[in-house]
Amino acid sequence: MTGKSPAVLVIGTGRSGSSSIAQVLHEDIGICMGHYLQHRESNAMGGQYEDVHAHSLNRMVVGGEMIVEDWLKYTRQQHEDRSCQAWGLKDHWMTYWTIEALQWLKPSLIIWARRPIVETIDSWMALKLRVHQRDNDGRDPPLEAEIPLRRTFKKICRDRYAKAQKIHDSDLRSVAIDMTSARRVPLAEIKSRIEEAFTMQPK
Questions:
Q1: What is the rounded end-to-end Cα distance, in angstroms, of the chain?
Q2: How confident is the model at residue 4 (pLDDT cuts 50, 70, 90)?
Q3: Which of 8, 9, 11, 43 has a Cα-to-Cα distance from 31 of 20 to 30 A?
Q4: pTM for the predicted model, two decimal places
Q5: What are the CA-CA distances from residue 84 to residues 76, 122, 187 (Å)?
Q6: Angle formed by the axes of helices 52-62 and 68-81, to 10°?
Q7: CA distance 92 to 75
């Protein structure tokens, strides 16, 4: 797991447990997931253990200000310049262009944080509720705002889940770690699953 190519790409939908996987990779297994990592408190929107620079560039790609290939080249160069022996990337938007990521980054392993869509949507809604209550003196959001929000999350989750499934089914370097009720899975168990994934034969 040394050299210019990353050891791991972590893909999946938001609220799927991918942050826990990235945390174990970074802190316990010794794979650098970034030099300036996002760390979020539990009641904030946004991912954890995502490289801040890569995440910012992702927003530029989404906004049409940068093409995927340039994002990938820049991100890889950042790790090469810092002489990372083993490194990885995690960002939910990367699920949309992991095929391109494979072409440029050639990872040793792709880990899909696989969590049932219904659980993922419920987790999104619960988080959104906590954030709204925090910012509005504990008041719940109006019901008429909750229904379209759930529809939006449902569409996003289904789309990203389907794309991750396609990658998993088509690439021999991909393994899925089931994160049902992801917040309750102990980190030690996640570490064991990741270590097993590194030793698995291609499916």
A1: 20
A2: low
A3: 43
A4: 0.82
A5: 10, 37, 24
A6: 170
A7: 15
